[in-house]
Amino acid sequence: MNDLPLYLLDDILFRLEPKSLAIMRCTNKYFQSYISEDSDFQIGYLSLFRPSLFNLGSYGATSVCCHRLVSSLEKTANLNFSNRCYIFGSCSGLLLIYINGLFVANPFTNTFRLLDHSGSSLLPWIVGGDGSYYFPNEHEYPQGNNARTERAMCVGFAVNRTTKSFKIVCILEMETVYGFEINDGYCWRLSETTINASSKSDLTTRMKPLYLDGTLYWLRNDGSIIAFNPETEQAQFIPSIFYRESDMKLLFAADDNINRLTLLLGTKETISIYALRKNSKWILATQIKNVSMEDNIFVRWNMVAYDGKHLVVREMKDRSKGEVRLHDMEFMMKENDFKGLVHVYDMEANSWRVLGSTWCPSHYDRDFYKFTPSLFPVEEDEQTKVIVASDDQRIRYLSAVMRLIDTTK
């Protein structure tokens, strides 16, 4: 096959499903180079598959939903987990996911790696471990599902495309001092790096950290940012400030088009998008009109994802005030069930459309994670590989989540 004309080789390889293509890349040096991450072939191959949007309950979920960002086709699964599922991060085509065990998974190639999370001082506490807590101010976080899972934003997930490696970084809050706990796929350790903020302000609850240009960023309530480079283990305090009215919604995001951190502030009428400049100032980039929401059945709304190309907004509606199927009524009375509509705004087309629907009991929020397909490898070498039994129930659930990704072209 090495001697085939390139157009014929491409025609053959483009017919392969993702896992087979990933295996093909390992057959010899020629294909390793030809199907490499930055090659024209892989760029063209991956362009056939569109990004997706996972969403699941913030406090652990027994069902996971997946939308395709470029169409209204919706794939949903109610997986009936015996243990709840958590997603802690999505980066470069990999998911950091917990289903009675911590996994790094590539849903596109249907491959995964099991990690030992017991050495972390934070993760066992979030997913319902023994409840012990590392920080001196542990009395501020009493036992309880909400208190635990609200700290999920302390977990950062970074994938280095150059070194073909990933790292998990947990930020540890200690008054105005921040420490960092790191896992490189094999063990947990505390970084020698700490950083002292100039003033006390909590990390913004349930606001996920961002990974951009090799650095993880956490937003604080006062608008300042804690930055940490997982490779150099250098930390930085960014003293940015923004002003937010009490009725404004907030989203911390990254704009892939301009490669900058962005901050979205929204009301029911207008959403303003700010970009962070090098002088730590937020500059208004653009404003858009928010999606129209029906006041008579409207409950609440929030912005859940933004990448410079798409803005995703979710609104909650009280289904008891709209059309309700009769067999839903008893369940709704017990669970106070609300219906959620997911809207996506195309920044180039300047238009809104409905992406799909979700549901959520009134006491639950939902987390959204953008997933962009990649062939990034996650397998370990044979000497360090953790063997997982084929009949392990966790693998069945994990495989069901990974199958939500549409790999049809």
Automatic annotation (TrEMBL):
Residue ranges of coiled coil: none
InterPro entries: F-box-assoc_dom_typ1, F-box-like_dom_sf, F-box_dom, SCF_F-box_component
Pfam families: F-box, FBA_1
SMART domains, per database record: FBOX
All residue ranges annotated as the F-box domain in the record: 1-44
Protein name: F-box domain-containing protein
Superkingdom of origin organism: Eukaryota
Organism of derivation: Arabidopsis arenosa
PANTHER family recorded: BNACNNG10540D PROTEIN, F-BOX DOMAIN-CONTAINING PROTEIN
